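Hi C.,

You asked whether I'd gotten around to modeling the 262-residue construct. I have! Everything is below, sequence then structure, no commentary in between.
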Amino acid sequence: MASGKPAARIDTSRPHPARIYDFLLGGKDNYPVDQAVAERLPVEARNGAAANRAFMRRGIEWTARAGVDQFLDVGTGIPTEPNLHQIAQDVDPTCRIVYVDNDPIVLRHAEALLVSRPEGRTAYVQADVLDPEAILEQARRTLDFGRPVALSLIALLHFVPDGRDPYGIVRTLLAPLVPGSCLILSHLSMDLLTPEQDRTEEYRTAGIDLRPRTYAEVLRFFDGLDLVEPGLVPCWHKDSPRPADADLPGAQSGYAGVGFVR
């Protein structure tokens, strides 16, 4: 496994989205400051986190079975089995994966847990989605951009405010990807939640920018791509039964989709 930068100091005085997400998934790699935010969230937040993780598994497995064998996962989060490389390499052991995150605790665990199968390769890059050019530069050390790459942006872009140009970031990350590449994306939305279920302010009070987006706003990330059926939906699944937990409260707290580069 390769790594981008040496580990920075872990700041336990401020909550971090990756650690809050870890807590919601039942993980233990979080701190009281993260737990304090997560415990103020309703049960819908836990169901939404679990549903989002399940989408990641379905989307990555389907994409690997469709023949894509390279993955660029930006906003990896704290490792939770099965990790993306395990899912992809179970389909094709030669898959190459580059993980990207900006939280030092993710790097600390990545070095221990994100181990590739011998036939493939797994790398970790310590970088921020706000610097997509740096991500691409380091990803080229592992991925062959002359062949299709799946860009995975799972539950990430709702942490990028409008003023930081999230659509421009996605365009930059997609720009070097050849036809046959794809975008795998999920994004928080309040479209299907009640005002009582909206806890956006809990994040903002904790100093975390959170920008839920509408269906039309999320769909813009797929501009110029060919969406895979069933399109951009709250519970994406392809060539598999509807998930049993799809109708739990909060499980449909966002939109997800897969789109291919023409």
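If it helps when you're writing up: Residues 1-7 have pLDDT under 50 and may be disordered.

Thanks,
B.
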